[in-house]
Amino acid sequence: MTRHIxxxxxxKLLIPLxxxxxxxxxxxxxxxxxxxFQAGVIFxxxxxxxxxxxxxxxxxxxxxxxxxxxxxxxxxLLYGGVGVVTMARGGRFLExxxxxxxxxxxxxxxILLVELGVGLTVTAVLVTIFFQFAGRxxx
Amino acid sequence: xxxxxTAVLFAFLAASAFAIVRLHDLFAAVMxxxxxxxxxxxxxxxxxxxxxxxxxxxxxxxxxxxxxxGTLALTASEEKPEHNRRAPLALAVVVLIGFALFxxxxxxxxxxxxxxxxxxxxxxRFIEDPLGVPNMVTAILASYRGYDTWGETTVVFTAxxxxxxxxxxxxxxxxxxxxxxxxxxxxxxxxxxxxxALSEEDAS
Lengths: 139, 204
What we know:
The structure holds 2 protein chains of 2 kinds.
Chain A: H1 5-27, H2 36-54, H3 56-62, H4 65-88, H5 103-134
Helix pairs in contact in A: 1-2, 2-3, 2-5, 4-5
Chain B: H1 2-22, H2 26-46, H3 50-74, H4 88-105, H5 122-128, H6 136-144, H7 146-177, H8 186-191, H9 195-203
Helix pairs in contact in B: 1-2, 2-3, 6-7
């Protein structure tokens, strides 16, 4: 799709903004609406837009399928890992209050890490599914 | 004013739902599904559920539409013509269940009713904010219901594994069988995946 110059210019303009908004939604989830899932979907949308405009192969060069597999696995591991750490520190599974000395700071850190895990998983999973669907040939 | 907006949105929602059911052109149906999601997102915004609204807009109107278009590109964009069967029994069942559900909603407290049970003890506790997290939706999802969200994350992960095994597995299998020529027919690949993929093909 190299011919559509208006689409390409607009996409180049929009993609960084979409990604920035995704990061805002991710890390501002404590204060405003949003969180890991929404941020992950928005970030994946930016990558999919890139793939639609610049071609699947180009997108696969940047976001390698192998890398995506590692990303979505590590997202789940990060979430579960937080739970294991809280258990190791004498709390229950996912009881963030024991993460730090102050209960509220522990909650904040726990939620931040957990949401990061959700965001990583959702982004990588959606992009993987899109690549799988878009990479197939018609019967 | 809000009532008017809500009524208009619901009318559009119903109209697009009917159109989706009636259409035989699947491409148009997918586009209408995107519009349906966008209308739902606007409805959620009217109800002050901004979180849900932009999840719906991003997932429903954005990603699912793209995925369904991708599926159409792989299969066919026209529904197979089916002889127009009238099934009065099915219609009766649907109407009956519809009325039962509608009757059930009459027991619900009205939307935004301050006397509703949820506002008696649950909402005040979350508004008090014992965790120190300003956004109570985040506090509920990530902390109070951390197990739920953990389950959802693994569901998303499982979806990727399923798609990789179902669609990506075929490619690897074909390489093993030594049929890596570019014109290999897709049905052959699907036969090599297993019964799930075959039934998927039948459904399309």
